TrEMBL record:
Listed transmembrane segments: none
Lineage: Bacteria, Pseudomonadati, Pseudomonadota, Alphaproteobacteria, Hyphomicrobiales
Protein's recorded name: Nicotinamide-nucleotide amidase
Xref: InterPro entries: CinA-like_C, CinA_C
Domain CinA C-terminal: 14-165
Length: 166
C-alpha cells in the first residue's frame, strides 16, 4: 500500500517527524544528490509540511554542490562526491544557505553504473547537521540492489537521521 508516491510506512514516519519538528519550532532542509529530491518529495507529500520544510537542494553535479552548498572543490578533489567529507559539507552547507535548523544530506552511487572497487554501487554517505550540535555522518552499503531500491533505502536512512537529530 502506498500513500501518494511513497510506501505508507515512509509517509507515516515523515508525518510523525514533521509533527515533532513543528511542535519544537524546527525547520528542515535537504541536500540531495543520488536521491534527486526524493527526501524533500516525501516530506512535502504530507499536508502542512510547509510549516517545517524550509527548502531542498538537489545537487546532482559537483558544480551544484560547490555553487549552492559551498562544498569546497578541494574536498571534492581529495575525497570525491561520494564521501564522508562531502556529505558533511553538504549538510553544513544546506544549513548555511537556508533558514533551517536541521539539514540532512545524501550522496552515493545508486547504480547500475558508476561503481568502483573503492566505491561500489550501493555505497551512500549521509550527513545531518543541526544548529548548535556536531554534524553526524553515516555510511551505508546497501549493495547492488537496484537503483530504485538504493534510492528508497536512502530516504529511509535520511528519515532516521532526522529523527535522531530531534
Amino acid at each position: 500500500m502506498t500513500a501518494g508516491l511513497f510506501p505508507q510506512a515512509y509517509a507515516a514516519r515523515a508525518a510523525a517527524l514533521l509533527d515533532r519538528c513543528g511542535r519544537a519550532g524546527l525547520r528542515v532542509a535537504t541536500a540531495e544528490s543520488c536521491t534527486g529530491g526524493l527526501i524533500a518529495g516525501l516530506l512535502t507529500e504530507i499536508p502542512g509540511s510547509s510549516a517545517v520544510v524550509e527548502r531542498g537542494f538537489v545537487v546532482y553535479s559537483n558544480d551544484a554542490k560547490v555553487d549552492l552548498l559551498g562544498v569546497s572543490p578541494a574536498t571534492l578533489a581529495a575525497h570525491g562526491a561520494v564521501s564522508e567529507a562531502t556529505a558533511r559539507a553538504m549538510a553544513e552547507g544546506a544549513l548555511a544557505a537556508s533558514r533551517a535548523d536541521i539539514a540532512v544530506s545524501v550522496t552515493g552511487v545508486a547504480g547500475p553504473d558508476g561503481g568502483s572497487a573503492e566505491k561500489p554501487v550501493g555505497l551512500v554517505w549521509f550527513g545531518c547537521a543541526r544548529r548548535g550540535a556536531p554534524t553526524v555522518t553515516r555510511e551505508q552499503r546497501f549493495g547492488d540492489i537496484g537503483r530504485g531500491a538504493v534510492r528508497l533505502a536512502s530516504v529511509a536512512t535520511a528519515l532516521a537521521l532526522l529523527e535522531a537529530a530531534l
